[in-house]
# Entry
Amino acid sequence: MDVAVLGVMIPIIALMIPIVAIWAKHQQKMAEMNAKSTAELTAEKAAQYTGHIKDLEDRVRVLERIVTDRGYDVSTQIEALRDQHRVEEAGTGVPLNIARKENV
# Structure
């Protein structure tokens, strides 16, 4: 290598070292900011999922209460009332003599 080229390269390298250090520090800050925003987004989504799960748990509790509090029996009673209404509309069945107070 020629002395003139070496004389030019040394100051260029000396000036590049701080530039590379500044660039590396900037990249590190950008990575930290990216990690922080990702953590905030993850925390926000976790909070949303927690709220959604709580709503679903509440709905399941209501359904369990319906099932255990004779919920199926209520459905059967509703269907029986519908069937009784159809019989009365069709004019079929045995009419009760209310005046004589018959027991069925």
About this structure: The mean pLDDT is 81.
